[in-house]
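I'll show a typical protein example:
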Amino acid sequence: MSGSARPTLPGAAAGQAAKRTWWLWVRRIATWIFFALVAWLLVHQARTIDWTKVLQAVLDIPLPALLAALMLAACSFAIYSTYDLLGRHMTRHRLGTRTVMGITFISYAFNLNLGSLIGGIAFRYRLYSRHGLGNLTITRVLGFSMLTNWLGYLVVAGIAFYFWPMALPPEWKIEADGLRIVGATLLVLALGYLVLCAVAREHIWDIRGHELQTPALGMALLQLALSCTNWALIGGVIWFLLQQQLPYPHVLAVLLVAAVAGVITHVPAGLGVLEAVFVALLYQVPTDRLLAALLAYRAIYYLLPLCIASGAYFLTEVRARQRRRAASKRRP
């Protein structure tokens, strides 16, 4: 009969399933090989470093530089914790400010150390659902927070790459003019988002089954201001730990390159990737001093917030269990 769909034969379905299984295993094996190669390179590179000098360089970082880095890191986490408040405004849910900022802080700390799937996504869904938010609302809050973060990246990276292009290694085959083109492209993308918000304010777009709501222009500018400030503060943390040996825009630009490299490789906390990018691009700084600054950066911006977030998450779990017990006792 014309126009009717042909029935799928059992053999064909089995063949397609076999192909999908085969392709899944190929991807898994390729991923394992990639991580094994990265691990081998890190171990090989680590053997060439005098870690005694690195430890001494960490101890030689002046106390004022450490305090300045701690202050900037605290300001950065405080600003990032407001991202979900913007999502609250967009979704109109009614959780309190302290609750929202606490959930965002915990998620961000675990996101930095364990990756976005565990930290940024899993922790948000678990903590927000504990407070009664539905999956659709959580997804919109999460998406808006991620959009805020990378919108600021586009602008800060665009400005840094266009106005202060750094000298890249020859094997990267990207010269200063090419980096300026990348910077200009990033700025155009950010400008396009602002124009879209001005033209189609508070419009909901359906992108592959996911709803994306563009805010009004005022909200988009607030997104931009918060995220740009946050990225600038993160760069300031490393700049102070490097004791201001290099121009701040140069250090910031290298951090932005390392951030994208960490996202592409999917290595939790960008472990090894951050260090490799800085060692490759900041060759003017002695390796022991550079690694000492990055170790201090990881302690201040990754491990210390993770310890605080772990304690806060433990308290939320204890309180949630107490509420469940109290609720069960009230039931007849």
The chain has one domain: 66-330. The longest strand covers residues 203-207.
